[in-house]
Amino acid sequence: MDFTYDDEQQALREAVRGLVGKAYGDFENRRRAVADDPGFSESVWQQLAEMGVLGLPFEEQYGGMGAGAIEVGIVSQELGRVVAPEPFLTSVVLAGGLVAEAGSEEQKAELLGGLSSGDLVLAFAHAEPGSRWAPTAEAVRAERAGDGWTLSGVKEPVLHGARADVLVVSAALPDGGTGLFVVRGSAVVRDGYPTHDGGRAARVVLDATPATPLGAAEDRTGIVTRVLDAARVAACNEAIGLMEVALELTAAYLKSRKQFGVTLNTFQALTFRSADMYVSLELARSMAVWATMVLDGGSGEETSVAASRAALRVSRAGRHIGQEAIQLHGGIGMTSEYSVGSYTSRLTALDHLLGDGNHHLGLLAAGVSGYDEVDPLP
Amino acid sequence: MQLALSAEDAEFRDEMREFFTTQIPEEIRDAVRDQREPTKDHLVTSMRILNEHGLAVPNWPVEWGGRDWSPLRRHIWHEEMQRAFVPAPLAFNATMIGPVIAQFGSQELKERFLPATANLDIWWSQGFSEPDAGSDLASLRTTAVRDGDEYVVNGQKTWTTLGQYGDWIFTLVRTDPEAKKQAGISMLLIDMTSPGVEVRPIELIDGGHEVNEVWFSDVRVPLDNLVGEENRAWDYAKFLLGNERVGVAPVGATKRHLAQAKEWAGPLLDDPLVAARFAEIENELLALELTALRVVAHSADGKPHPASSVLKLKGTELQQAVTELVVDLAGPASLASGADDDSDLPWWTRRSTPIYLNFRKASIYGGSNEVQRQIIARTILGL
To answer: In chain B, how many domains are there?
Structure first.
């Protein structure tokens, strides 16, 4: 049993921390990056590609680094620490993950190669109005058209859907099941808009839009589930980075801010609440690290449960820490000029991207009578 | 990073599991499982079996029966013991005074007390808290005044758990009334059969008699019974209380009690609100267990991991949450706490409220949870 990162993993952490720290260590730079479309820095994206981060989880033959869940987790934590707006989670982990699992050889070579080199931004067009984190599609339907396929319906919100060069779209198949298709960004009508956390999303309208099956046009629900689980684990890691810094900022503020002639850390009502934030953070960190290790070595079913468990704890912690970070700062925490509110906003976005705490609690509760107790070790 | 135990540690776990489930009489383990108040006989029998096999005091120095295990192995030993419902070695002996004597006592004190302490031939009681010295322990007022080759001790200790069984009591006493409060404290070992020692029961809200007041009236204690040096006991007490926090998160036992509660819940588990409550507590327990594993896997250099302060705080909250859940599962039957076995109500429903009330203690003892928050805020967050 070992909960530590090895030297190579430490080096990766330091490299990524150096890169994004330089880019966004000054929060003003982050504000500027999210102010205009596409909502992130193309040059930081390129630097991440050069470092190998954008191809991290993909096989080397497709331009990737062949790394595992632990490394993806490290990168996610570091991006979280500076609320980096680059779409690593949605483009690399989610959309790229689907291509890696379901794509044909040619698709993997083209799409993963382009993603790894920074030439292509991918998006996963999955959420539909009314859907709530299911691995299936209903409103967007796939139809056969001659030798090919067309898709019709609306996907929204599609994160970074307006900027994406390529969309991976989930769609209900004529004979049942959910298929995955590749659509060029330029082939669809896209209305882009900012999201509260500084990101971007789009309403994507498909209207008999020609589409290429990702691999085969068959039910991909299992693959979507697996990749969503991997993304949940990555999102938990990102949230750990966010919560770490939200707490650091709060503690530093309590030590410097004066009211009634003394610094705020003289008030026990405030320091005790900070201590509770620390408890939340450490419990969430344990779960995120554990789920990452389960994902790295476990089976699909084990990973699904572990991802739900981590997502539940991280959701609880993210709300607790995010809300308290603003409250303990007072008014300054409400301003967009100061960083801490952006951490809370991003935590809120992550919480609702892949299933919030109560969603996962519902899944876990449904199975609770089926076993005696939980053993975290394999 | 690696989740699985090494082959050696996994084998160690199997050995422990085998030992605890086969070598400790079932009658004793059933009593722990059903959360009945432990009898003196059960605790003595169990600890002597453990000691006979070198499993009572693994945390002590090797020459006095310790095992020099890694923190992970000590954790596995402790968890497997709880899993098998084996009563833990008496804390006053095994984790409190034993390590203090081994660390700070004279050779003579070690030889006189350590073997008997490990074997529970001496039942130790703890004489720290006083009516006006709770979390602020250093404000204690019990005095010891030198008179020839003896100290004369006067004062009152309280919350002395299981003091009714005590043979000896380790006490903090004020030996220098002039010094500032932490500086004038010494540790004395007192034979509880000495004239002037009186143990009075305190009845608790669960109806039980678990704690006591201990009064000292002109009790004469030989100078030889001083631990370490005079007026230096604040350091010894901090050492002792630091040890007390290790293993204070009863993860294994709480997990087993939650699993029992699932059995008792029966059809109530079909209620989504009840199922959600189980799932949430279970998830919090998992987070706690993983945090405990992180702490033990990382504290190989002997320094406590900062996250260890989380364990007592969250561990006791979850312990209490399970007792609360069981009362709710019992529903109106939880009122029948005074009924005996002639009752038509299942025994666990009748026991549920006294256990719930009893475990309100958990967030108070061992450094109250507010003291834990203070430690986190100060030493970890620097506030």
So the answer is: 3
